[in-house]
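Appendix B, record 7
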Amino acid sequence: MVVTGGTGALGRAVVKAFLDVGAHCHVPHRGTAPSDMPASDQLRLVGGVDVGNEGQVAAFYAALPSPLWASVHAAGGFAMAPFGALSLRDFRAQLDLNLVTAFLCCREAARRMTAGGGRIVNVASRAALAPAAGSIAYGVSKAGVVALTVGAAGELKAAGILVNAVLPSIIDTPANRASMAEPPEVYARWPKPAEIADAILWLASPANRLTSGAAIPVYGAV
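Structure tokens (predicted):
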């Protein structure tokens, strides 16, 4: 299986969840792989892959050593700007970072899965349903991920490929805690990476035989 964004806080939790159940994980990344990734014969880190680059994404999926069952797309990023100050360049940057990466990886994963079915899971955001002031570009890009998910699910279901998305709110990571000073009770309500990974694990597993085209909230009471 593939996990994009697998060296980030959520991606690492996803990788761990799959390794724990015996999956073999292929994780593309652009730069030097972090030294604290799990040591496992089931984990393959592939450097020099920009998941926003069409040629590099196609080459990465084409080089996978075995038929592909699952592809989880956690790569992305967040940026804020007041609407009146939002440049076209910055707007497009969020589309490239969040929507284009998901599109390219969904397409290439589907091409590798068509013989025997599979599972695709995209990481969108609560902002796809409730865009917030100051982060319009991010919300639009994640809404695009939901539309991509629903559309791809309809087109690929006949091939046995189920496509879903999860919609986290602010994830409880050290970086988010450092950037947003909140009382401890607020942090406690943020979804944990491992909790989101559990939802992704089920959606990407053979146990999921029906659910496709869903955008599943994973933010609890927040």
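Remarks on this record: The helical segments are 9-20, 54-62, 88-113, 136-156, 174-179, 184-189, 193-203. The chain has a mean pLDDT of 92.
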